[in-house]
Amino acid sequence: MTSLITLVQPAPTGYPAYSLTFPCEPSTAETGRKLVRDALGVWHLEHLTDVAALIMSELIANAVTHTSCRSIRLTVGRPSATRVRVGVVDRAPARLPVLSRAGEDEESGRGLLLIDGIADRWGYDLHGPHRRPWGKAVWAELSVQGDQ
């Protein structure tokens, strides 16, 4: 299996540290999990890999399900020395994420609820001019101080 990340001296912080664009389709989730594993490995934060990869998968699934975008940008960053941020950027600013509860019989609709339960915090940022944004980034953050 090849790495998505070229070996370079990792930046301790900075946002986004790793960012790649892929088709907005379900198969991109595997690539997103690989990007998370590679970035966290470079930062020696392997203890966050499973949770961060699950978050990335859910964010990609939401973009695939709720937007008509042809491509999405996957990001893994260190906005500070104590936090990791995993995100997905799409070109559907009108389709904002909403935390809701799915019914017992529904097979989907629990992604953001799951993210809300496992991330330290999550949210979204609109991109572009205030009156006419061109897209949004939906993200979740994890503390690097977890069980190592």
Keywords:
148 residues, alpha+beta, 3 helices
Share of residues in helices: 25-40%
Proportion of residues in β-strands: 25-35%
By DSSP (H or I, 4+ residues per run), the number of helices equals: 3
Number of strands: 5
Distance between the termini: 26 Å
The outline comes out as globular
Q: What's the main sheet like?
A: 5 strands, antiparallel
| Strand order, sheet with most strands | 1-2-3-5-4
Protein structure class: alpha+beta
Order of helices and strands: EHHEEHEE
Task: Provide an overview of this structure.
This protein has 148 residues and is an alpha+beta fold. The protein has three helices and five strands, in the order E-H-H-E-E-H-E-E. The protein has helices at 28-42, 49-66, 111-118; strands at residues 14-23, 71-80, 83-90, 121-127, 135-143. Strands 1-2-3-5-4 form a five-stranded antiparallel β-sheet, covered by helices on one side. A hairpin with a 2-residue loop joins strand 2 and strand 3 (83-90). Helix 1 runs antiparallel to helix 2. The longest helix has 18 residues, at 49-66. The protein is globular. The chain starts with 13 loop residues before the first strand and ends in a 5-residue tail after the last strand. The mean pLDDT is 86.
